[in-house]
Amino acid sequence: MNIQDLGNIGEFIAALAVLVTLVYLSLQVRQGNLLAKSQARQRMVEQAQSELYTQMADPSITYAIVKDGTLTEEEQARLSMFLTAFMRQREWEWYQYHDGVIDTDVYRAYHDVIGIFLSQTRTRKWWTNIGRFAFNESFAGEVDDMLERTQPNSYMSDIRHWDDA
Fold it and tell me: Which one of 10, 44, 123, 146 counts the least CB within 10 Å of its CB?
């Protein structure tokens, strides 16, 4: 065996080492992506629960959405802050979706809740007059498009009176 044969064996071993390294790194990247997706979904679940707990702790937020007549300043402030936090979460999910962190079906499941909240007369007025201007322009445009296709519904009223039926 001469020096050239040893060089060829060395090159083969080096190429094999590079191949093994690339396979290992691709597995690590895949695992990292799965972890990122899992963490994003976990955050979405936690935020959705937080929104529900907020409404449970302060049902006046739900009532303010469907209340007849004018809201007090306190009711307006409370509802506006809730809607801002609610829509900020949906905007975060929109970013995660566009970055490929969450899948389409997961995104739609959370995104479509916007139609429940903003299909009410009062909340749609909030979105049109002040809410939409606090968010990314493309996100706001997507919400506007969705609201054009969404008819007003009685979901929030039904929360108050579902047991009366």
Answer: 10
Start-to-end Cα distance in the chain: 92
Of the candidates 119, 127, 131, 117, the residue with the CA atom closest to the CA atom of residue 62: 117
Number of domains the chain is built from: 1
Give 134's contacts (C-beta < 8 A, 6+ positions apart): 84, 87
103 lies in a domain?
Answer: yes
Containing structural domain, residue 61: 41-164
User: Side chain identity at 45, as an amino acid letter?
Assistant: V
pLDDT digits over 16-70, tens only?
Answer: 888 888 888 888 888 887 787 777 767 766 777 777 667 666 778 888 888 889 9
Which amino acid does the sequence have at 83? Answer: L
Give the DSSP letter of residue 150: P
Residue 1, helix vs strand vs coil = coil
**Is 62 a domain residue?**
yes
pTM of the model: 0.71
Amino acid identity of residue 93, one-letter, is: E
Please report the pLDDT score of residue 131 as a whole number: 94
